[in-house]
Predict the 3D structure of the following.
Amino acid sequence: MSMPSRSQLSASHSNRRPRLSLLIESSSAEHQGQAFFKTAVRIFPKMNTFTFLSSLLFACSLSAASTWVPTFNDKPVAPHHARAIEVALPQSAIIAPQAARRILVYSATAGYRHPSIPTGKLALERLGAATGAYEAIISDDPANFEPGALNEFDAVLLLSPTQDFFMPSHKQRKEFPKEDWAWLQARHNRLVDNLLAYVEQGGGLVGIHSATDSCYKHKAYGDVMGAYFNGHPWMAGHTVTINVEEPEHALLQPVFGGQSDFRIKDEIYQFKDEPYSREKLRILLSIDVERSDPPHERIPLRREDGDYAVSWVQGIGKGRVFYSSLGHNHEIYSNPMMLNHYLAGIQFATGDLKADVTPSAKLKIPNVDACCGSDEWQSLFDGKTMNGWTQKNGTATYEVRDGVIVGRSVLKSPNSFLCTNKTYGDFELEFEVKCGAINSGVQIRSLQDDDIAKGHVQGPQVEIEHSPGQAGYIYGEAYSGWRSPEPQSKDPKIKAHSVFKNDEWNHYRVYAKGPRIQTWINGEQIADLNDSESYQQFPRGMIGLQVHSHKVAGVEIEWRNIRIREIK
């Protein structure tokens, strides 16, 4: 896309305002009236009173348009949100900046104004200060988008702007004469062109949330931002599963640590077919529809391709663009993972964090039919049978019901385990689990030896239990007790949490490589255990679904979507 230069844009702008208006504009606000009268008397000494006053009123109205700056009655950031931001802030940049960086944070709106904007401003300002990655200039003054002013910034961040964001809202239109409104519209178009030229010539642009709900009549803006909003079927209260499309990408690996997905509660957008395209954008995050809450029943899913992107990057000329639709809820701005996601995007936009922007559709697609690649996911459960599994120990029952493995407690039975026939060493494991009031877990790298522990299944276990509890921590089944969070402690209340959702489906992710075992529940990291002692004893073994001994018969635990990726 070819953009005019900043000098061309400035030169091509036709200034059609009367001289009186320009004279007033050159004065400070508190002296405008006085300056106008002195100038007008000098210029128009023979003008009659009526004509003079008419000219005065006309000039003053145009002056109001030319000096207009948006203002908003935002509520202050709630103290609990401010405290949460401080706790969540990372303490270092993704990468050390090559120079002192300044970014402009602009959040003016001509349409809907998100209540979370003040929270976002505070978080972005504190994010730069805490990490040293940048200095945030928080301003809604459109004058910052004049070419000379734009050159003072390494990147521009548009925080949830809406509609024609350099303009007053249409509700305010009656406050401006026709000529003023036309001038404001012309200025809006000029400032948008300035922004796009700035990016084309090497500047950075970051868009958050409703930055895609803006400038619909300015096609070049949509091309640069990457998409236009087309409804939000997943609303603010919905919890969705986000696919990390390329865990090893430069903008993703430092944030998500190689994990393939996470769960989060936020409003999610879908985008119009144009200009959104994987032929143009490098998609970073997207929605896993099947593992997300059902969308709003009154808002249809409009994309026939089922492609619901969330974050992306692209190169525009010499510049760089990062966008994420996440950012509706206040809590997004105190989520450590999301703050790091924004930070990575900002440092990419400023030019410090280098990243591949090759469009997703143009990447080399791996041969999915090739056998046993190190990045290949394999399902451990076919949804119909328990082929590949064998029950060990105990008499609890296991069955397949409606595409789910259901374990059920039996009186006087010891711990029971449904184990894979195959063993695994280094791997990434994912599954979903729902249970009643029963203690359970999933064994990893586990063994059964008739000469050890009386043939009881032994090995690390990822805990499953109702909240508040220690779900997601690592227990040494039949060999040591708790390995995390504090192996030496016998107190079950230590680091108890409520991330596990009682009587609901919960998504688990387990990453085991060498002595390090990491776990996540519903996208939130729980355990990060480096256990050389256990690894020496259990470097490889079975995956096992536990039904714990229980005083009540018939208590159920369910598993589904069980898959594994071996790490070679």
Observations:
- The domain at 377-566 is CATH 2.60.120.560 (Jelly Rolls).
